[in-house]
Amino acid sequence: MSKKVEQAMAFHDKGYNCAQAVACSFCEEFGIDQETMFRVSEGFGLGMGMMDMCGAVTGMLMVIGMENSVGNLDGKKPSKGDTYKKAKAYAQKFKEMEGSYYCRELKGVATGMPLVPCSQCIANAVELTEQYLASEKA
User: Fold this and answer.
1) Which of 19, 31, 51, 43 lies closest to 125, judged by CA?
2) pTM of the model
3) What is the pLDDT of residues 79-92, one digit of tens each?
4) Cβ atoms of residues 27 and 37 within 8 Å
5) 40 close to 22: Cβ distance less than 8 angstroms
């Protein structure tokens, strides 16, 4: 288990939602203070509060956006298309690992049989995020 996964799990144990646990684990890489990231990511937990897209996945996608975005369009080529492509690819990787990327399906709301616990979603989202960041530096 990586230090980032351990940190994300500790955040979740402390009460952070899944999106916050993942996103806040990568604050240092982007020079963002944890309070800001905590606030930005709060509405994305519990599948955006509607049991839709998994919070751990949205936390991962926030970090992918932080790494890939040009930051503004002042004389720069837009990066959103490329970011969407990368976000889709990594969300798909998560889905292949867990069987879904929807909170309600992961928690087994309709079936009564959860696919995986939140802790596993967080760990795998952090690991995928680490893989993404490593591939961008290669």
Assistant:
1) 19
2) 0.95
3) 999 999 999 999 99
4) yes
5) no
